[in-house]
User: What shape does this take?
Amino acid sequence: MKTLYKSKWLLPGNRKVIENGGFLVENGVICDIFTAEQLGNIDLSACDTVDFGNATITPGFINTHAHLQYTEIGKKRSKSLVNRLRRLILELRKQLIFKGQNKTFTSWIVDLIIEYMSLSEKERIDSFNSGLRQALSGGTTAIAQLSREEVYFDILNSSPINAYIFFEVYADSEESSEKNFDDFRKKYERLLPKCSKNTFIGISPHAPYNIHRHLWEKIAEYSRQNDVLIHTHFAEAAEEMKWLATGHSDIDKLHKFAMFKHIEPDKKESSAIEYLKTLNLPYNNVILAHVCQLAQEDYKTLGELGVAVAHCPRSNIKLHGRTLNLPAILEHLSGRVGLGTDSLYSNDDLNMLNEARLALNAGVDLLTVLDMLTIDTARILKIDHLTGSIEKGKQADFLVFKPDNNLDYSAFANCEKPDNVFIAGKQLI
Ligand SMILES: [Zn+2]
Assistant: This one.
C-alpha cells in the first residue's frame, strides 16, 4: 500500500520549496513527489493519505559530528566501588601532572577521559542510548558517530537511524601505528559484511597530536584503496596550534597522562594548513571537524584540497570561545560543510536545530542551512543515494514541524524540535 504525505510546506532539499504538495511512500521508500497542481490532476484514491495540514515537512537532519557515548558523563557517578576507586587514582594522577591548572582544553580532555573510564560498560552503553534517544527526538535521522568500541556499532546497526561509525585510532610510534592500524583494519573487514543497508564504517584518526606520521601514511593508503572516509578533529584548539608550530604545548600533559610517547610534527614552524598538505591524504575522503583556529585565508586552501568540514558552533564557542566564519568558509566549501553537535560534554543538547540557529545568526540563508543539515552532509558522507532529501528512490526520512504561525515556510526554524520523525517511512516520534 502506498501512502501519500501532504502538508502546507514541503522543503524536499536542494533549495526547493513546494507549497501544498506531497509525496508517495511505499515500503519505506519515496516513489513520487508532487506539486499542488500535479496533486490536483492525478487519482490517488487507492492510496492512504496522511495530511499534516498547516505543517512543514523537511528531510531528516544529519549530525556530522557526534560522540553519543559521552551523553551522560559528568552527570552521575558510577555505582561500582571499583570504578570509584579508579576515578580517585586517575584524579590524583591528573593533579600531579596539571598542578591545579584546570581551565585548559587539555585539562578538559583529561576530565572527559577520567569520567568515561570511571563508568562500567553498562553505564557507558546507557549513556550512549540516552544520546541516541535525544538525537532522534531532535530530528536526527542520520549520524556520524566517533568512538572506538564495537558495541556502539552493534547498537547503531540494529537501530533504525542511518549511521556512519568512525572508529577512532591513535598511535605514538611506528610500532603502535602498525599495531593499531592492523586492529582497525581487522575490525573494519570483519564488520563490513555485517552492516545493514543504512550502516557505514569509516576511520577517525583522533587529532594531529595523537597520530604518528606512520599511522597517517597507513590511513592514507587504505582510504585510497578502499574508499574509506577519514574523520579527524583538526585545528580545534589553541594548544594544538602551538603544538603544530613548536612541537610542544599544554598537549604534552595529555600525552603524559595517557602515557603516550611525545610526538611532534615532522616540520615545525609550519601552519596547520601546511601540516595538512604534508599528510598527502585522499582529501575528498577527509572530513575535518571544527577548524575553528584557522585563519580565513586558509579556507581557500581547504576548498582547493577538496576536504569537507564538520562545523560544531556551540561546542567550539563553549570550549574555545570562537568558531569558524561560516559565510566566509562557504565561499570556498559550498556544499562541503555539515553541522554537528559534538558530544554533550561540550554542548547543552543534541538538537541540530540549535546548531542551525547559530548558522542562521551568522548570516547564512535558511535554505542553505537546511541543505547543510541534510543533503550536503549526505553527500559529504556519500550516503546521498539513501537519504538527505525527499526525492524519488530515497528512503522516506523526514520531519514534520507544526509551528503556530506557518504563513511562511521559514517558521519551522523557530520550533524547538520536530513534532514527528520518520525514518524509512516508519514514524518513530
Ligand atoms: Zn569531537
Notes: The longest helix spans residues 81-98.
